Amino acid sequence: MRGLIAPVAAAALLTAGCAATGVDRSFTPREAPAKPPVAEETTPAPETVQVGKTMTVTIERPVGADPVLLKAFTDYYLASWRAVVGDDDTGYTELVEDPAAREAYDWVASFAGQRVKGTAKVYAMRVTAVVGDGAQVNACVDETGLRLTKGAPAWTRKPYLQAVVVHRGDDGVWRIKGFRHSWKGCAR
After folding, report:
1. Residue 6 belongs to some domain of the structure
2. What angle do CA 129, 181, 64 make, to 5 degrees?
3. Are 34 and 17 in contact (CB under 8 A)?
4. What CATH number is attached to the domain comprising 117?
5. What CA–CA distance (Å, rounded) separates 168 from 174?
6. Across residues 164-184, what is the average pLDDT?
């Protein structure tokens, strides 16, 4: 008999909670309470940098990313184009280290005798990894607005992803140590 008291008491309590009380308890949907306004992060206006007399680079810098690492990328990008257009032939060499130094030199040398005009764009920059004294910075590059006197290389025909591996030297300066490129990831 004692074994039946607990189950019967539990059943009685459950049915009492579900019994009609005379109050209509039908469900009526309501709007969710408004969320408090969040301060919007503002994206700074794109920066346009003159590179030589006939070329500009528009740079869209993201909010919240490490500005020092992004600057390592943009400083190199601008300096390499300055070498191409003849404004500063060697400034870019101070921003790279082996093994990227040879690749950077070969890239600039491949433009010998070329004239460049128009606008390149750097956008969607982000720091994808930081490990100790190393990091990776990815950026989308659109050079479709550039015109070259001796024909444009294939990579100027559509936006591409350029990733750089940077290394912080003993002097505290971040220099590019490696380049990676991809056609994927930068469609606009």
Report:
1. no
2. 35
3. no
4. 3.10.450.50
5. 4
6. 95
Question: What single DSSP character describes residue 102?
Answer: H
Global confidence as pTM = 0.75
134: containing domain: 47-182
Asked if residue 20 belongs to a domain, the reply is no
Q: Is 100 within the bounds of a domain? A: yes
- CA separation for the pair 119, 116 (Å, rounded): 9
- Token pair recorded at residue 71: 């600057």
Please tell me the distance from the alpha carbon of residue 96 to that of residue 98, in angstroms, as a whole number. Answer: 7
* Residue at 112 is within a domain: yes
Name residue 21's amino acid: T
- CA–CA distance from 62 to each of 72, 78, 124, 125 (Å)? 14, 18, 7, 7
Angle at 88 between CA 127 and CA 98, to 5 degrees: 50
CA 119 to chain centre: 20
Average pLDDT, the chain: 82
